[in-house]
Amino acid sequence: MKKGVLCFLLLLFIQMGFAQSNLLWQGYFSYNEIKDVSESTTAVFVASENALFSKNITTSQIKTTNTIDGLSGQTISASYHSATFNKTIVGYENGLIIVINEADGSMLNVVDIINKQLPSNIKKINHFTEFEGIIYVSCDFGIVQFNLATMQFGDTYFIGTNGAEIIVNQTALFNGFIYAATNSGIKRATIFNENLIDYSQWETIAPGNWSSVEIFGADLFAVNAVGYIHKYNESTSSFTGYLALNQPSSDMRATVNYLIVTTLNSVYIYNSQMGLVRQITTNQITESNPSFTCATIIGDTIFIGTKEDGLITTSLSSVGTFENTTPIGPSRNNIFALQTTSNSLWTVYGDYTVDYNPYDLDSYGVSKFSATGWLNIPYEKVFGAKSMTRITVNPSNENDVYASSFFSGLLKIENDEPTFLYNQTNSGLESLTFAGPNYIDVRINGAAFDKSGNFWVTNSRIKNGLKVLKSDGQWQSYAMDNILDSAIDNNFGTIAIDKNGTKWLSTSSDGVIGFNESGNKFKKITTGPDTGNLPIADVRTVAVDTRDQLWIGTTKGLRVLSNVGSFQSDNQLTTNPIIILEDNLAQELLYEQFITDIAVDGANNKWIGTADSGVFLVSPNGQETKYHFTINNSPLPSNDINDIDINSTTGEVFIATAKGLVSFKGVSTAANDDLSNAYVYPNPVRPEYQGTVKIAGLLDKANIKITDIEGNLVYETTSEGGTIEWDTTAFGKHKVASGVYMIFISAQDGVETKVKKVMIIR
């Protein structure tokens, strides 16, 4: 008997593959936009838009660091690795500095520059220079000292005229002086002068606008804003023109043996005699068309940062071979829309402004994430489709995917390959016409499949704004000029289809339009107590929940239509706000919030994205806010939420922000057809784990009872959806003791049952 118990306990310890420390958040970042590179003798350290990665030269191991690990989601502007202290320093455009201890991965957020009483637009960090344990931080307002040993700031130098703020792009410590390349000349002062905070101690030795200054061997070099390299003449204390570049320089740095100057189109590598050892141009890299941002050398390997193509490596001694060593991720961080299935995740990057202007005409292609990693379909393969703002997967066929372009029409993707672009010439889609007959602009946005396999799309700023691609391949259009105040001025947001086949369309100026082809009925929900009770007619998103309620997200708050079935019976549909009690005061949930998206999980909770306040998770009736995630309390890289979607099988909630994609390992999955796949995680529950136990793979409205090994009931609940949580307390009073606990699951009708076990170790 004892042997059997021991075997059972061993099985519990190895059951499931869940890492308890990894249950909540995961990052899906792009590392393609390289901001800065630095190096040690064994590794290169790379800063991208808002994440880092490093590559060990010996082992080729790549390590990534992003907001999941503690970084800020703000935009990085400079980075530096101190080999002496084994610390990496990251600087941001808003003045934040994060210091990473590479020995243990710990991070320190340094907010002194953010807190300085200066205009926020001049706090950008441009460069780090290390000298005798002190980092000289070049900023858009001056220079700041930071002590790497004490992790404390020292003096701040305002070195402009009469102590004014000026942009300092880079500093260098040379022969007892600190030199600063600024937008108002090259300035210098004696490094050991104890009164460097006095601007009069700094002299201007070269006028003009300078991008960089760097020591190389026994010499000092500087580059001005137009791309002219100068060499310092110590006898005359002046800089002399030395070499003209074809373009302005974006970066200049020195290693032991080489001076490296980077421009948009070239990397120049000079030896100690300033002989040009190697020039790398963008047209040598035939696999892409990169724009260079920075470069460095370790041994014989050149590492080149690019604006959109990641980190490219090549050999210093051999010409012609280039390799991309960037961690695989989405094409860019600003994912505008996404859709997840049980097996994959699709993303698009096009966008429009708050007033639906698509004219940035982003050209970024489409990306797919699956078990095999990221597949990035480049713009060159999408038949010229620009500003793709929605992605829709056929629920009956995951290999049938459509990307809505808010300028070019509708892109069809089959088996991961773009195959056709529907537009005004080959389909029922139409171009707007108010700009003249020769101007082509086909604005497709919201899209959804109905239960019959028909594909419904919205076509903005035309008379026939609702289109359907039927399952037989035929197109049909529905005129909306009678229901919309001005069809040619209207823009559509998302679309939702309820169980009755009613299509709910969000519009920019007419609230919500409901349509059902049975009887060809249109109905409008708009502002005013007698015409719909919306707070504003600008609706961005709609979602139908599992209780047949329509949740409506506007630019000024939230409304709910209590029953979508009222479309058939009521002449005028009316919505209501959700009133909650906060501090014993009645308040409207999400009052005046700009709501960008609403997603319904398997337990009928609502995940609500906002334009500047992060993500809210509210209970099925909205009365309880379970989570409010922001950049301050979670790994969200931005409070600007573009889109949310949920994997109904795993419960993973994908959140697309303006600064990157993250996911939250949600606890609510769609209900299952039976209990054959019911499971418990984490199992065992170890002492260091502070979260809840999840019981997944459930039927809807299943009854769950948890008892100790002696049969004493400690918890009971009924599921909504496919997953429930247990906080490991006895009816919320106290934590249960160590031991094995029995989980009895039964269907609502009692026909199907399941018994599971979980071990808790305190």
From TrEMBL:
Annotated keywords: Signal
Domain (PorZ N-terminal beta-propeller) ranges: 44-203
Residues of the signal peptide: 1-19
Domain of life: Bacteria
Entries under Gene3D superfamilies matching the protein: YVTN repeat-like/Quinoprotein amine dehydrogenase (2.130.10.10)
Cited Pfam families: PorZ_N_b_propeller (PF21544)
UniProt cross-references to NCBIfam families, sorted A to Z: Por_Secre_tail
The protein, known as: T9SS type A sorting domain-containing protein
Organism of origin: Flavobacterium gawalongense
